[in-house]
What we know:
Blueprint: E1 2-8, E2 22-27, E3 30-34, H1 40-47, E4 56-58, H2 64-67, H3 70-79, E5 87-92, H4 95-105, E6 119-124, E7 129-132, E8 135-141, E9 151-156, E10 161-164, H5 174-177, E11 183-187, H6 201-207, E12 216-219, H7 223-226, E13 235-236, E14 242-244
Parallel strand pairs: 3-4, 4-5, 5-6, 10-11, 11-12, 12-13
Antiparallel strand pairs: 1-2, 1-14, 2-3, 7-8, 8-9, 9-10
One zinc ion binds near residues 61, 63, 144, 148 and 167.
Amino acid sequence: MSEVIFVGTSDAFGAGGRRQPAILVRSARGAALLDCGPSTLTGLASLGVPRDQVDSIFITHYHGDHFGGVPLFLLAAKYADLRTRPIVIAGPAGVREHIEAASRALGHPMDDSPWPFEIRYEELAAGKEVEGGPFGARAFEAFHQVETKPHGVMIDTGEHRIAYSGDTGWFEKLPARVKGADLFITECTQYEGNFPYHLNLLQLEKHKPEFDCDRIILTHLGTEMTDRRGKCSFETADDGLIIRL
Ligand SMILES: [Zn+2]
Ligand SMILES: [Zn+2]
């Protein structure tokens, strides 16, 4: 069985009082976080998921709502959880430098004392397979601010394939990149509108027949979509939603 726990389902700005992006994928093999927004520690604690259970963290791109929680996650692992197990952090090019720079900027430089556990960094690149701790993953390109090095990921738990868009606007190859997923978790920040770097519901409705995925769930819901949870033509995520595949 694979389990997906939506830890945070809001857009960057906490729309609707929900937490910023973080999704936990868990199976008998282990557990991985897909993105780790600033409110992830609160979410895991609130949902009763021990941090020490997380084997790997996938970062889709370098916007704060997607990786801002990593420095404090690592700090908590070191000082509160007394972690000894290694952790994998997979992210776009320069992942180690981004995490270390963010930690330093937030007042917790990582080189001030030895780490009692190994942090193994893996770089995501479109089309490349990586071993992200317990799960294999293949990243794909996304259409989002290019300086954030945006990617989506297809996670293979061994039993199921779970695709996650990260942040993206519409691009023609999106259905091909997530084809065959048992679950496709896609951002849907807006209901309508012309901001090109995020998807909206009207676009997803228009392109729905192009997706060959068993199940699709919308997340990263902005204000307009917050009000449409449970009332639109797609399933919508909410903080604490658990899906069992
Ligand atoms: Zn975002
Ligand atoms: Zn973003």
